[in-house]
Amino acid sequence: MSTPKNAPKDFGFGEDEALLRDLACKFLDERMPVETLRRLVAEAPEPVYEEGQRAQWDAGLWKEIVELGWTGLAVGEAEGGADVSLVGIAGLVEEVGRHGLPSPLASTLSSTFVLRAAGGDVARQLMARIARGGSASLAITNERGSWEPTDAPLEARAENGELVLTGTAFFVQDAFKADWLLASARLGDEIVLCAVECDASGLRLEADHIHDLTRDQATAHFDAVRIDEAAIVSRSAASSLRAAWPALLVLVSADLCGSSEWQLQATVEYAKQRKQFDREIGFFQAVKHPLVDAMVSIDRARSLLYHAACEIDVGSENAETAARMAKSAASDAGAFISDRSVQLHGGIGFTWECDVHIFFKRSMHNQAWLGDGVHQRKKLADALIGPIA
Amino acid sequence: MSPAVLPPEQQEFQEYARRWLAENAPPPPPERLPISPIEVITTGQRDYLQTWQRKCYDAGLVGADYPTEYGGGGHEGFQRIANQELGRARVPFLVNIVGLNMAAPTILAHGTDEQKRKFIPGCLTGDEIWCQGFSEPGAGSDMANQQTSAVLDGDDWIVNGHKVWTSLGHFARWMILIARTSKHHKYDGLTYFLCPIGGHPGVTVRPLVKITGESGFNEVLFEDVRVPDTHRLDDVGKGWTVAMTTLTYERGAAESAGGGGGDGSSATRRLIDLARNTWRDGSCAADDPVTRDAIVQRAIAAEGIRQNSRRARVAALCDHPMRLPLQQKLTMSEFVQHDARLGVEIAGAHGTLYKLDERAPSKGYWPLAYMNSYGHTIAAGTNEIQRNILGERVLGLPKSK
Questions:
Q1: How many independent structural domains does chain A possess?
Q2: In which region does residue B330 sit, left (phi positive, over 0), alpha (psi from -120 to 50) or beta (all else)?
Q3: Tens of pLDDT along A54-81?
Q4: How large a percentage of chain A has pLDDT more than 90?
Q5: I want to staple B100 with a disulfide (CB 3.0 to 4.6 A). Which of A35, A126, B243, B257 is the partner?
């Protein structure tokens, strides 16, 4: 588990990476302060929870984000992207999480890393499209919510130079914000990865009813969706997904670290203002000490996050272990500060009018996404201890 | 992306240290060594460990960054490397822990040139063992409540009082001591001394027995003990400030003069080995999913500690400069405690066995390490005090006191 020699001591987080992160922070401070987020997604519960509307997002702001080049961060320069290291991207995604930004950024970056792992001309064309501002999402999860890359949700059959996709992909993130889906499908004894336009004939997106107000999620029904066989991205989807998996774990961990830090600071601020027994409640150690414990757990997750991103950047064989450690720590830190943020806000923290629920739900979603701490540790145990006899 | 590799002379030093440690590992000790310096009890252990520290010092692995006029190597950025390599190599610890980690850096920061020349070399070589006199029966977490008094009499101070939890006191030549020189100010009435201990008239060192049944720390009684004014560190009334310097080093928030922490990944390997060799409910403990999860949690904690210290040196990834350094003592001591506790748990029925029972796993390490771990969660300011400090100084919460 030691750091390989070529891994930079500073994780590769230099001036450029800090600049990117600071610009993202400034931009989101201006454009998505928590008051704006609340007005956007949490005006009232009924539309989303009772009437089945999808959570709101600011498509105009997304256009600006595209102009800032965020979609192409992970795309190589040859395809028109910025080719920023994952460490640099993690810094930016932390800010996205800290501001609870509703956007298809995470799903688009995730798709990019899968395309990079797949390689080939089709993947490069798709990445160029992402760099130009296209948004994508992964349709790789079956009804059971399995994280195994071999559990492709769709069936494919070849027909006259075309591929016919049938079946249902579940838990597709921000599907209604995406232009196209990157789907995995079983084709004979292969698993193929292919891009499908969201408005393709035969594809129907059905919105899931979810708690998180800062994203949408869909069940994608494929009823004999036809794509050109030449548009297949990869015929070994499982290995592409496996190779990209550490980066996907890093992206969601970065979002968790960011949202956790927001929850920590918001709760600390409240503990400095709220008075009971003639004192700010932060005076009391029953309030102070759990906040310190939350900080310690967030810091552990953050350190492991940059470690994992750096291992991936340098191509270390330790990347998956480091990424699973980061996700385990980030999920657990998120769960702990989520719990304390509601509890320590007291009665008001239990109400809709207090902003903590927005981040609580985003965090809860991300804790489960790609596997929670227990799942990651189960995988880590197999790697570190060896499989159960 | 900045390269951030070690500068060539540090790279060279790292290779040298690694090679030297590989070639100069000491012979096995004549008797079993305890887990840490604060549990050194016998003169046999002490002599063996003092010889080892002297050897490391002569090799340039101790005091590497200290000025040469005070016995150091006069380098920059070498000690961290030496500490890492000492931690990595499976060699004994350096026995003069108080001298290296607390006395030397405090004297360097606050002492006169004469004091630095007189005291620092013995800290580094290990020839003069140091102990710490901060705790008293009535001054634990409330450290400023010192009752030990020092009254000026000519060129000497007359010290009377009672110090407790004094690790290494029975071997110590010197003590870093805080005493009350004024009753009018709680904090500003304290002064810091470099007090002679071993063989000094009026000083009585008595062993205290820990929950493990081992000794290793002491109480120290002062009856009209004369301490020359030249052994006063910094100004009269500045004792609290000077003590804060010591605590910064003691809690690991700054680089010490020598040492080397335990390597977290080897701790995980020990737990895995234990689990592989222990039965649990009729099968191997290493196959028990709950045990596996617990071990992996420890592996993550160990990697987290390593990566925290890496990130602490990347300013752009630290929102508050003291946020990570001030967590060091808390996270390290609880890491060791949770690790040892898990070892006891995994050992199951065999966790009941004392070190003298030959069936005890790892020669009885786990239960003793677990019980001894409370020394670290309580000493150097209890972890409850650490949480106050972090809450107040980093998060800005109102002071509990």
A1: 3
A2: alpha
A3: 999 999 999 999 999 999 999 999 999 9
A4: 97
A5: B257
Residues in chain A with CB shorter than 8 Å from the CB of B295 are 381, 384-385
Alpha-carbon distance B303 to B175, whole Å? Answer: 36
Distance, CA of A254 to CA of A264 (rounded, Å): 15
Question: Which two tokens mark A125?
Answer: 């064309």
Q: Which domain holds residue A308?
A: 238-384
pLDDT over 60 (residue B259): no
CB contacts of A285 in chain B (<8 Å) are 384, 387-388, 400
Q: What is the pTM of this model?
A: 0.91
Are the Cβ atoms of B310 and A303 closer than 8 angstroms?
A: yes
Q: Rounded to whole angstroms, how far apart are CA atoms B368 and B360? A: 11
| Distance from C-alpha of A223 to C-alpha of A204, rounded to nearest angstrom | 8
A157 bridge partner residues:
A164
Distance CA A271, CA B395 (A): 10
Pair of tokens at residue B39: 């549990």
Mean pLDDT computed over B313-331: 95
The answer on pLDDT for B38 being more than 90 is no
Contacts of B96 (CB under 8 A, 6+ apart): B37, B50, B53, B123, B126, B128, B129, B130
Q: What is the pLDDT of residue A285?
A: 97
In angstroms, the separation between the Cα of residue B141 and the nearest Cα of chain A is: 14
Q: What percent of chain B has pLDDT over 70?
A: 95
pLDDT category of residue B264 using cuts at 50, 70 and 90: low
* Chain A interface includes B399 (CB < 8 A): yes
- CA B275 → CA A380, B235, B280, B294, distances in Å? 16, 55, 9, 11
Q: State the average pLDDT for chain B.
A: 92
| Measured distance CA(A133)–CA(A88) in Å, rounded | 19
CATH superfamily of B264-394: Butyryl-CoA Dehydrogenase, subunit A, domain 3 (1.20.140.10)
Q: Which residue, of A236, A260, A276, is where some domain finishes? A: A236
Residue range B8-128 in CATH 1.10.260.40: no
Q: Does B314 touch chain A if contact means CB atoms closer than 8 Å? A: yes
What's the rounded mean pLDDT across residues A155-181?
A: 97
Interface test with A, best of B317, B331, B401 (most A CBs within 10 A): B317
pLDDT above 60 (res B262)? no
> Other C-beta atoms within 10 Å of A386: how many?
13
Give B-chain residues touching A280 at CB under 8 angstroms: 397-398
Q: What is the mean pLDDT of residues A83-87?
A: 98
Q: Does the pLDDT value for residue A389 go beyond 90?
A: no
Q: Which residues of B are catalytic?
A: 250
Average model confidence (pLDDT) for chain A?
A: 96
Scanning B277-327, the segments in alpha helix (DSSP H) are 289-311
Contact B289 A378 (CB under 8 A): yes
Q: Are B211 and B371 in contact (CB under 8 A)?
A: yes
CATH class given for the domain over B131-239:
mainly beta
Which ranges in A50-206 belong to alpha helices (H)? Answer: 59-68, 86-98, 105-118, 121-131
> Reduced to 3 states, what is the DSSP secondary structure of residue B63?
coil
- Across the interface, which of B300, B394, B398 has its CB nearest the CB of A282? B398
**Cα angle B390-B395-B398, degrees, rounded to a multiple of 5:** 90
CA separation for the pair A363, A353 (Å, rounded): 18
Q: Chain A residue closest to B273 (CA)?
A: A385
Q: What pLDDT is recorded for position B33?
A: 86
Q: Tell me, what CATH number does A22's domain have?
A: 1.10.540.10
Are the CB atoms for A118 and A245 separated by under 8 Å? no
